């Protein structure tokens, strides 16, 4: 594996290898010195054209825990603000000898283009409404951690599927790992291309909840909407929000997930978000381990991740 651009590029064994490696690397967070020398001398560039808190910080921490040198590149305050193209920025990074580039960009396909212009490994940290593969990997890791398995799990992904790169990546990865996915959303927020996705579609959240082992709520991405996709926020919440009454419809062992940031009161009530069966903060913690695993497997060569150093 040279790049991680899409979860569609991962076979079953490759995906399981990343999850198993992440489980090993999670031990680092429990040590007094949270570092491994694995990527010493390697340079990782975080190239973020869109604002991010969790993803950028998580990748930075992951690279530093593997002893890599990290450069954080933000479009704001850089030559990009002066009109520099993605290709010219890529050629600059190439000249600097970047071993790995983690990129988030507002245009779908940007990560694939970047991978053609640099010699180092490229990790897609979100490209437009296309994909966000490491988010899907950390979600799968969290499901396996909490539920003990992935094969046969019934997963409902609820909300703004149309604008969600998280939804697409999760559908593809979870299908590869043997889970059954149902998308639940208003008809206006379901992509036209969903017929080619390996999942089912429902418009009735109350009907799907009792059958689901995992319910993943999505953020309504108002910043990507240039027209009305539902009458009002209140109406959306009434039909597709996860509140106390809907939470009661779920099985006793079912869990609630959210990639963040959450819009409390609209997509999910505070009571549900703060429930012990909600994994939101655990997903953030697991994100560091999963991103360490991705960087290790892309840049670390054949050295063991843990032990035998």
From TrEMBL:
Subunit structure, as described in the record: Heterododecamer (2C3:3R2) of six catalytic PyrB chains organized as two trimers (C3), and six regulatory PyrI chains organized as three dimers (R2).
Family matches, as Pfam families: OTCace, OTCace_N
Xref: SUPFAM superfamilies: Aspartate/ornithine carbamoyltransferase (SSF53671)
HAMAP family: Asp_carb_tr
Keyword Cell membrane among record annotations: no
Binding-site residues for carbamoyl phosphate, renumbered to this chain: 54-55, 104, 132, 135, 260-261
PANTHER family reported in the protein's UniProt record: ASPARTATE CARBAMOYLTRANSFERASE, ORNITHINE CARBAMOYLTRANSFERASE, MITOCHONDRIAL
GO CC terms of this entry: cytosol
A biological-process GO annotation: 'de novo' UMP biosynthetic process
Positions annotated to bind L-aspartate: 82, 165, 219
UniProt cross-references to Gene3D superfamilies, sorted A to Z: Aspartate/ornithine carbamoyltransferase
Alphabetized GO MF terms: amino acid binding; aspartate carbamoyltransferase activity
Range of residues in the leader sequence: none
Keywords per UniProt: Pyrimidine biosynthesis, Transferase
Top enzyme class: transferase
Source organism phylogeny: Bacteria, Bacillati, Actinomycetota, Actinomycetes, Streptosporangiales
Entry protein name: Aspartate carbamoyltransferase
Pathway(s) this gene product operates in, as recorded in its UniProt entry: Pyrimidine metabolism; UMP biosynthesis via de novo pathway; (S)-dihydroorotate from bicarbonate: step 2/3
PROSITE patterns: CARBAMOYLTRANSFERASE
Species this protein is from: Nocardiopsis composta
Protein role: Catalyzes the condensation of carbamoyl phosphate and aspartate to form carbamoyl aspartate and inorganic phosphate, the committed step in the de novo pyrimidine nucleotide biosynthesis pathway.
Domain (Aspartate/ornithine carbamoyltransferase carbamoyl-P binding): residue spans on this chain: 2-145
């Amino acid at each position: 594996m040279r790049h991680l651009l899409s979860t569609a590029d991962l076979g079953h064994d490759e995906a399981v290898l990343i999850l198993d490696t992440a489980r090993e690397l999670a031990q680092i967070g429990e040590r007094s010195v949270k570092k491994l020398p694995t990527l010493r001398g390697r340079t990782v560039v975080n190239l973020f054209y869109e604002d991010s808190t969790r993803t950028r910080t998580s990748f930075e921490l992951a690279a530093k825990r593997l002893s890599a040198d990290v450069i954080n590149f933000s479009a704001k305050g850089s030559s990009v603000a002066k009109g520099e193209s993605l290709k010219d920025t890529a050629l600059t990074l190439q000249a600097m000898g970047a071993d790995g580039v983690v990129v988030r960009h507002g245009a779908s396909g940007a990560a694939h283009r970047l991978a053609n212009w640099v010699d180092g490994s490229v990790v897609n940290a979100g490209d437009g409404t296309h994909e966000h593969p490491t988010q899907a990997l950390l979600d799968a890791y969290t499901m396996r951690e909490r539920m003990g398995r992935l094969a046969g799990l019934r997963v409902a992904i609820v909300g703004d599927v149309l604008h969600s790169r998280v939804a697409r990546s999760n559908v593809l990865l979870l299908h590869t790992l043997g889970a059954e996915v149902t998308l639940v959303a208003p008809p206006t927020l379901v992509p036209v291309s969903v017929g080619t996705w390996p999942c089912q579609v429902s418009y009735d959240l109350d009907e799907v909840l009792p059958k689901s082992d995992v319910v993943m709520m999505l953020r309504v991405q108002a910043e990507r909407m240039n027209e009305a996709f539902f009458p009002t926020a209140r109406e959306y919440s009434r039909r597709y929000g996860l509140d106390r009454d809907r939470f009661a419809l779920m099985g006793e062992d079912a869990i609630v997930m959210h990639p963040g940031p959450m819009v409390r009161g609209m997509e999910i009530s505070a009571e549900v978000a703060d429930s012990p069966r909600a994994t939101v903060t655990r997903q953030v913690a697991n994100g560091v381990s999963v991103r360490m695993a991705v960087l290790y497997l892309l840049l670390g060569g054949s050295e063991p991740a843990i032990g035998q150093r």
